[in-house]
Every structure is written in structure tokens, then in C-alpha cells.
Design brief:
about 270 residues; alpha/beta; Spore Coat Polysaccharide Biosynthesis Protein SpsA, Chain A; eight-stranded mixed β-sheet; two-stranded parallel ribbon; 9 helices; about 20% strand
Length: about 270
């Protein structure tokens, strides 16, 4: 995976009031990879702040602006609220894998072992309500939670039928080739992890933990975590593509090719 040539990190929470909250408690660190999401990221931050207030959870948003050519960074800086925000900016677009790696490292740099690290999209298609359900399952003893399209109660709105078919086919293929107890949705990037689990994974894999550049990195992370003795579980997702502003950043055919290539490499032991 490429290393960002230039990375700028700002703790916007400190800048808003000039102080740091020392009364910590458990923190939910939400990593938001963002590429040209000026039309959506503001709504995501407002939803996270609302979810935190309603649930009593302390939310910390980590937005990774992956070389956006629009005003994504300005929108994040302009958020007017009480949500804790860290903004990381790559000098150029490096891909989802690099953005996730920057976000996860930033989260673990601040997180205590009892904290939870969540990854979710910055395009306003993922509703924050699932965070509450995932954290509740972590409190019941699970280590990795996936907001899944294949659990009872899931709702998918606005996703084209062809793309839904491809997602289901990929899920079926991975369940056959790499079965993981408790997992049906291998490709959804909306997940929650114990911070201590991610530290174990980084200690084991080091730079290789997140070394895929494209959307297939989500599958690869899951496959690597499955080699550690962990408990996986899923909660139903509400996926709202009808709220998404702008076009999808995923190049479907390239993602299919890269994911199948990854599948073959991992099956052969590479």
C-alpha cells in the first residue's frame, strides 16, 4: 500500500473551545474515509453528534480527507457542534485502503483498550443507529461487529438491483471459500472493533494489516482478523443509497476483479 507523501492532522475539537476534556470514559472512535464528500460529510457529522447525545456515548469522528478536489475539508472544519473531530488530509488521492489505514492508526493512537473503533462511509448511506447495536453486542463479549445486509431486519434502499445481485454473489462465494462463524456480509465497510483487537492485529501483521488499496481492503481485513481467536457477529443495517449526494466512487468491474484476485491469492496462501 502507498504511504501518504503528505499527511496533515488537525484536532478540531481543541480548536473550537481551546481546551481538552479530561473526563474521558469509553470513547467510540468513528473512522470516516472521505473522497469528494462535501455534499454528504456534514450530514454524517450531524447524525453522529445526534446519535452520541441520544445514546449517551462519547463519539469521536476521524475524517480522512483522501486528497479531495472539492470542499470536503472545509465542510469538516466548518462543523458547528460539540462533536469531537480529528481531520486528516492526504495531499493526494491514495485510495480507500490508505485512508482506512490513516484513520485506524489515528484512532489507536488515542484509544484505550476498552474503546471501540467504528469504520463507516462518509457518503450518508450508513445510519449511525447501528453503532448503538454494535457496541451493545461488543459489551456482550463479541470482538468484531458487522452492519450486515443479510440479517433479519436489514433494509436496503436505492441500491440498483444489479449491484445488489453482485454483492449477494460475493457474499455467497466468500462464505463457501472462507467461512467465518457469524459472518455473512464480507464486503460492507460499516463495522465496529474492540480497540484491543485492532492493536493485536497491528502487532501481528504490522504494515501488512491494511495493504490493499481499493474496496477489497475490507474483505482482506476480515480474512486477517479471522486468523486470530475472535468472536464475530452481525447486526442488521439500514442502507440508504437514496440519500447519497453525487456518484459512487466504486469502480464496480475493477473492484470485482481485485476482490477475486485477492480471493485467489489468499486461497493459495499468499
Amino acid at each position: 500500500m502507498k504511504n501518504p507523501a503528505e499527511v496533515r492532522t488537525d484536532d478540531l475539537s481543541e480548536k473550537r473551545d481551546g481546551s481538552v476534556d479530561n473526563h474521558r470514559g469509553r470513547v467510540i472512535h468513528v473512522v470516516l474515509p472521505a473522497y469528494n464528500e462535501a455534499a454528504n460529510v456534514g450530514a454524517v457529522l450531524r447524525s453522529l453528534e445526534k446519535a452520541g447525545k441520544e445514546s449517551g456515548m462519547r463519539m469521536h469522528a476521524i475524517v480522512v480527507d483522501d486528497g479531495s478536489s472539492d470542499s470536503t475539508g472545509q465542510v469538516v472544519r466548518g462543523h458547528n457542534g460539540e462533536l469531537e473531530i480529528t481531520l486528516i488530509q492526504h495531499s493526494s488521492n491514495l485510495g480507500l485502503g490508505a485512508a482506512l489505514r490513516s484513520g485506524l492508526l489515528a484512532a489507536l493512537d488515542r484509544a484505550a483498550d476498552e474503546d471501540v473503533v467504528v469504520t463507516m462511509d462518509a457518503d450518508d448511506t450508513h445510519t449511525p443507529a447501528a453503532i448503538v447495536a454494535m457496541v451493545a453486542r461488543i459489551d456482550q463479549g463479541f470482538d468484531v461487529l458487522i452492519a450486515s445486509r443479510y440479517q433479519k431486519g436489514a433494509l436496503v434502499v436505492g441500491v440498483p438491483l444489479g449491484r445488489r445481485f453482485l454483492s449477494y454473489t460475493a457474499s455467497l462465494l466468500f462464505r463457501i471459500v472462507f467461512p467465518i462463524k457469524g459472518v455473512r456480509d464480507f464486503t460492507c465497510g460499516y463495522r465496529a472493533y474492540r480497540a484491543s483487537v485492532l492493536r493485536r492485529a497491528l502487532s501481528r501483521y504490522r504494515q501488512e494489516f491494511v495493504n490493499q488499496e481499493g474496496f477489497q481492503c475490507m474483505v482482506d481485513i476480515l480474512l486477517k482478523l479471522s486468523r486470530i481467536n475472535l468472536r464475530f457477529e452481525e447486526v442488521p443495517i439500514v442502507l440508504r443509497y437514496d440519500r447519497k449526494g453525487g456518484k459512487s466512487k466504486m469502480k464496480v468491474m475493477r473492484t470485482i476483479y481485485m476482490t477475486l484476485t485477492l480471493l485467489l491469492k489468499r486461497r493459495l496462501g499468499f
